[in-house]
Amino acid sequence: MQYFSDASYDSDTGEDENEQEPIYSQREMDYMEIEKLLECRGPPLVIEYCNKIGVVALRWAVLNPNRTKPESVLDPLAVHSWNSFWKKQPIYKESLFDREDWNAIGEFALTLCVACGFSNPSQFHVQNVMLQLLGFVNFKYPK
Fold it and tell me: Rounded to 10 degrees, what is the CA torsion of 35, 102, 142, 140?
C-alpha cells in the first residue's frame, strides 16, 4: 500500500469535496419546521386538535393537491359563515365559527404553508389548507 500526501491530490479529478449531499430531505425539514411551529405558537383554540394529529398530517394538509369544498367538511351554517367571511359580510352568531375564528385558522394555515416552503402562497392555497385542517374532525355533522 502506498502513501499519498495531500499535496499530491489533484482537485480537478474525482468528486468535489465541497459538494456534500444534504443531511435532511425537504420532507424532514418541513417536519422540523412544523414541530417548531407547534412548540412555539401552536394552532388556535378552535382547531386545537391540530396539536395531536401529527406533523405528517399537517404537512399533507399543505401539500395535498386535491381541492376541498367547504360543503364537504362543514355544516350548512358554517358554510354560510365561510362564504360570508370571504365576502366580508356579517356572520350569523349561531354559526360554529365567527370572523375571529376564520382569521385565526387562516393565519395558522398561512404559517403552515410558509413552514413547508411556500413563501407566498395564494389565497386559494390558504383556503384549501384551512378546509383540509377542518376536515380532520367532524364539523359537517356536529353534535
Answer: -90
